[in-house]
Amino acid sequence: MKNKIYNWKDTLSAYGFLSPWFIGLILFTGGPIIASIVLSLTNWNLLGSPEFIGFDNYKALFAEGSDFLNSLKVTFIFTIINVGVSVIASLLLAVLLNFKVRFMGVFQFCYFIPAVMPSVIIAFVFKLMLNKEIGVVNYILSLIGVDNPPNWLNDTFWIWPTIAIVSIFTYSTGQMMLIFSSALKDVPKELYEACDVDGANFFQRFLYVTIPSISPIILFNTVVATVNSFNSSFSLIFPLTNGGPGSETEVLSLSIYKHAFKLFDMGYASALAVILFIIVAAIAAIQFRLSKNSVHY
Q1: Per the domain annotation, does 103 fall within a domain?
Q2: What is the pTM of this model?
Q3: Using CA atoms, how far apart are residues 205 and 208, in angstroms rounded to an integer?
Q4: 3 occurs within a structural domain
Q5: 207: domain CATH number?
Q6: What does the pLDDT look like over 31-49, one tens digit per residue?
């Protein structure tokens, strides 16, 4: 009887410690999601009362002349670039940080700086650096003999390589680098010693020992980076390109902002938000499903 009482008290204490997170999840995540679903079925311009119109907003997404399909395509392009670049860059930086060299703490601090800076600030800094007329990048190119440097942020050819470079310096890279660095330290040394006995080189050790050993962390960082790319693309794209040139970089989050706070069509914007939520959830589920044969716990 006493054991049951103690177990009940332990369970109650555990739920007590977990309750702030659950309350926050219900109020600040679950509540807005439900509100977005309800608003997506209405016509509301922020003035007056919402008018119920059923699934008309969802039909309008696929209507002729809609910008939804273009925004969806741009969002996938941005996510593939952002996730690929940031995950690979963070893993390479983590590998470099595991070499025993002097001043490693200084390098780690420098690599982590973007993680403590808002993406908006990073975007504005790069926007100034990449300015065609007064940017420091084009100034350096002119010093080495480039007569007509690129218009990095207003050229459809250069815009995606530019975004790929900027993605390296987002907060995700610094955070994932520290996670990768911790995972690399937990790889059993015996495996590396066995590789040395077999005469394996660095790349063979990395491919056949390091990657399988940290595969759960690779999965975790990839899923987190994917969700962040879909949901946080606005904070990078809006100050950097504002969706331009034209609509070349108008991601879904930027389209949601435009329809909600420029066109005051909250119902349509909410429908876009619901579609974005479904896409992110589906992709995360697919990533976990596909990882069963490649992730080794």
Answers
A1: yes
A2: 0.89
A3: 5
A4: no
A5: 1.10.3720.10
A6: 888 999 999 999 999 888 9
